[in-house]
Amino acid sequence: MKSTKHLLDRELQVMAEAPIISKITDENLAVVRQTLHDLRPSLANAESYDVKRAEVFVSLDGGPDVRCLLYTPNHKEDSLKSGYVHIHGGGYIIGSPEGSDLQNLLLASELGVVIISVDYRLAPEWPIPAPLDDCYTALGWLHENSETLGIDRERIGIGGESAGGGLAAALAIKARDEGIYKVCWQSLTYPMLDDRTGTDEFPGDPLVGEFVWTREFNQYAWNCYLADADRVAPQVPGRLEDFNGLPPTWMFTASLDLFRDENIDYAQNLMSAGVSCELVVYPGACHAFQRIENSELAKRYQDDFKASLKRGLSSK
């Protein structure tokens, strides 16, 4: 396959020149996890955000404790706050909420939203349903403790990036089907939705998936995550047949991202079911492009994401 580097935005060229991960296997997964853990952002200036950051362990209906990070704005408001369940990315096999610390501190501070970021169990040690169950526990806990936290239960949204976006989509489906905890809005940033993407049967556009997250990574991660489970929704949102009743959705993807087409398909299915959905495709961007924080595309994404969060959590 010919390189697509020439299609990558000039400010993102570094993502093609120095990939953090060159392969993921059973043998090196622990090393990959540690490498990414070591790259987590520094919290040296955390106090400047005027947000209380706390490690909490939450449970629901006698289930297992789920470790989360809770971000609560210190400034008081006359009205109830909105709530947001954040789910980190990492292909269902890598990552932790600490990787999104600065983003969540900033959002809690600027928008006055209470955020719970889920340290869900990772595959392959914990395949489905464990990761989704952990996210559902966090959503339920936020609802059940809304009065104590000063949250309007009608304004609780969910979202995440990559696998976190996939889990958020799965969580929205599960919440709809269970009918107990309302989700007012979901934000999906290049979500990992469909296990078929990049397979021999569904190879997709050859112009996508060269950088950061490849077809090989994708198949390895999905096999870890699903193990012997049925390949159906909600664990595979891309296989969902009934999109009715899902919450309003904002979706962000990239023109060179492996997930581009499955993201567009998912957005089309939502709209065909009458679900409000706004989709943004960033040209010349690849998976995880917003990590190049000073690039114009990353700045555009951050502005778009904050605007969508503000709009989504202001409606009931």
CATH class: Alpha Beta
| Number of spatially distinct domains | 1
Number of E-type strands: 8
Quickly count the helices: 9
Structural class: alpha/beta
Distance between the termini: 47 Å
Please tag this protein with its features.
316 residues; alpha/beta; Rossmann fold; 8-stranded mixed beta sheet; 9 helices; 8 strands; globular
In summary, what is this structure?
The chain is of the alpha/beta class.
Describe this protein's structure.
This protein is of the alpha/beta class and about 325 residues long. The protein has a single domain (about 5-310), classed as Rossmann fold (3-Layer(aba) Sandwich), CATH 3.40.50.1820. It is built from nine helices and eight strands. It has helices spanning about 15, 30-40, 100-110, 130-145, 145-150, 165-180, 215-225, 260-270, 295-310; strands spanning about 50-60, 65-75, 80-85, 115-120, 150-160, 185-190, 250-255, 275-280. The protein has an eight-stranded mixed β-sheet, with helices on both faces. Strand 5, helix 6 (about 165-180) and strand 6 form a beta-alpha-beta unit. Helix 4 crosses helix 6. The longest helix is centred in the C-terminal third of the chain and has 17 residues, at about 295-310. The protein is globular, with a radius of gyration of 18 Å. It starts with 13 loop residues before the first helix and ends with a helix.
